[in-house]
Amino acid sequence: MEWLERVRTLLDARSPATLTTHRADGTASVSPVWFRFDEGAFEVVIAEDDAKLRNLERDARCSLLVFETVPPFRGVEVAGTPELIRGDVAAVRAAISGRYLGVTAGERFARTRTKPGVLLRLHAERPRVWDLASILPTEPA
Question: Is residue 92 part of a domain?
Fold first, then answer.
């Protein structure tokens, strides 16, 4: 996975991400999400009663966009049909929360989420990756 080496630090950081699903009328619904990249797939926990999950149950296609807001402005987008895994998501929820909040605060945050969740796993089969480093202006020495 050559692409992964280009964006590994982006995926390991607290990078912003959005998940796009499709409403019943076909329009896009874009939501900010926390994620982790694990064993070749992007993972997001979605609350059982969330509109994102209803959208995915009707039309399973989605895309996930991860990006950075500072140079070199790298990003990755993956699209496809995710696995939706029902069951106990507490450990994954805590791990993902811990990426953004720190381990202790992430575990505390995950414990406050009392609604059951569903794990979305979107495999990175054909990611679209960009890195603007080669086209950004450089500062004079």
Answer: yes
Number of other CB atoms surrounding residue 80 within 10 Å:
14
| Number of Cα atoms under 13 Å in the Cβ half of residue 128 | 7
How far does CA 92 lie from the centroid of its chain?
13
The domain in which residue 36 lies consists of 2-132
Q: Which two tokens stand for residue 34?
A: 């926390």
Cα 46 from Cα 53, distance rounded (Å) = 7
Residue 138 included in any domain? no
| Overall number of domains in the chain | 1
Residue 34 CB-half CA count within 13 A: 16
pLDDT, tens digit, for every residue of 70-117? 999 999 999 999 999 999 999 999 999 999 999 999 999 988 887 789
> 């575990």: which residue's tokens?
107
